[in-house]
Specification:
It contains 7 helices and 10 strands. The protein is 70% helix and 13% strand. The chain is α+β, with helices and mostly antiparallel strands. The chain is rod-shaped, with a radius of gyration of 55 Å. A 5-stranded antiparallel beta sheet has the order 5-4-7-9-8. A 3-stranded antiparallel beta sheet has the order 3-2-10. The N terminus is likely disordered. Helix 1 packs antiparallel against helix 6 and helix 5 packs antiparallel against helix 6.
């Protein structure tokens, strides 16, 4: 291979985006983020680890490790085409790779002695996929966790709103019952007042009749002075009756005052109870307004988060389109590089064919041998 072709291939290898693109063997096939190099003796070792790939995320694979097996199959000495077909697969699938590494004799691993060198073998399970696919997978998991948290918060807010509504309904029912009981008590007080008024009217009428009887008695007494002795006893009896009536009226008046005091105290108690009920109702209304305001804030927060999520999806879609355009441009560059490389190989073959007809010189033979060795080495290089 010519020096120009080697420089072009080296510049392509140094580009991380091109490395991640080369991990994919097709539209649905991906590797694990490792560049492998095959030695002349058939061993395949890790040449480079792709940044952000599955191997770098795992952290156990190192540059220089020799691959020994794929999913339990021994691949030492296998052609690179076979190894490539075993490594590549669908994105999201897993593959178990067995590596060998030269370690110190004191390390606690499975050791094999090969030619006096201590070799450690270990298995690594890696997910197939490009760095972009793995990054999208991590972002998707984070978004799912945030979405679950938001759903749980919304569920709690709805449950709290339901509890507040149930408490308000219960308070309304209690207030309705209290209003009914207060109406019944008001009716009883009104009945008592009406009965007391009727009793007062009856006593007043009795007093009036007594006074009328007294006046009639006095009027009858004046014409019958001669019957004064007989009428004196009758008068005494009338006075006694009048005294008894007065005592009865006084007792009724006291009872009326006591009943009035009791009713006034009961009325004051009912008024205090109504004020307390009104205060409790106002407190409940304030709590309800506070709960509605909190629910409104939560709804606004959810709307903002949804808007941010939509904007993030739009930015992700725009970045994906730009990345696709970049990949297409790089594929074009890579195709041009391959064409240049094929042209260089053709020129080299033409040059070597022309030299066959000329007498061979030791120096020319050495240069041709070196060129052929370089060509075989580059042909054994591949990416997984």
């Amino acid at each position: 291979m010519s020096t120009k072709g080697q420089d072009l291939y080296s510049s392509v290898r140094s580009n991380d985006s091109m490395m991640s693109r080369s991990m994919q063997g097709g539209p649905h096939m991906s590797g694990v983020g490792i560049f492998f190099q095959q030695e002349p003796d058939g061993k395949v070792y890790v040449k480079t680890i792709v940044s952000g790939g599955s191997a770098e995320r795992d952290g156990r694979v190192r540059v220089g490790d020799v691959i020994c097996g794929v999913d339990g199959r021994d691949v030492i000495g296998e052609p690179v085409s076979v190894l490539r077909s075993l490594l590549l697969g669908h994105e999201g699938g897993y593959v178990v790779l067995t590596f060998a590494r030269a370690v110190e004799s004191g390390a606690e691993v499975d050791l094999d002695a090969v030619g006096g060198t201590v070799i450690a073998k270990f298995d690594v399970e890696l997910m197939r996929g490009s760095p972009e696919y793995l990054a999208r997978l991590d972002a998707s998991r984070r978004y799912e966790g945030e979405l679950m948290d938001l759903r749980q918060q919304l569920k709690q807010a709805l449950a709290e709103e339901k509890e507040i509504a149930e408490e308000v309904e219960r308070v309304k029912r209690v207030l309705q019952l209290e209003r009914g009981a207060s109406a019944r008590r008001d009716k009883e007080i009104e009945d008592i007042r009406n009965a007391h008024q009727r009793e007062t009217q009856a006593l007043t009428e009795a007093c009036r009749r007594a006074e009328q009887v007294k006046r009639d008695a006095v009027g009858r007494l004046m014409p019958v002075q001669t019957r004064e002795g007989d009428m004196t006893e009758e008068l005494a009896r009338m006075k006694e009756k009048d005294r008894l009536r007065k005592e009865y009226v006084e007792e009724l008046r006291k009872r009326h005052e006591e009943e009035s005091g009791r009713l006034e105290a009961q009325l004051a108690k009912e008024q205090r109870s109504r004020r307390e009920e009104q205060s409790a109702r106002q407190e409940v209304e304030r709590e309800l307004a506070k709960g509605r305001a909190e629910l409104k804030r939560e709804s606004e927060h959810l709307r903002i988060i949804s808007e941010q999520d939509r904007m993030h999806r739009d930015r992700t879609e725009m970045a994906r389109r730009k990345f696709k355009e970049l990949i297409d441009a790089m594929e074009t560059v890579f195709g041009m590089g391959k064409e240049v490389e094929e042209s260089a190989v053709t020129l080299q073959n033409d040059f070597l064919g022309a030299r066959v007809s000329l007498p061979r010189e030791p120096l020319g033979d050495s240069i041709a041998a070196n060129n052929n060795a370089d060509g075989r080495k580059d042909q054994n290089f591949f990416i997984a």
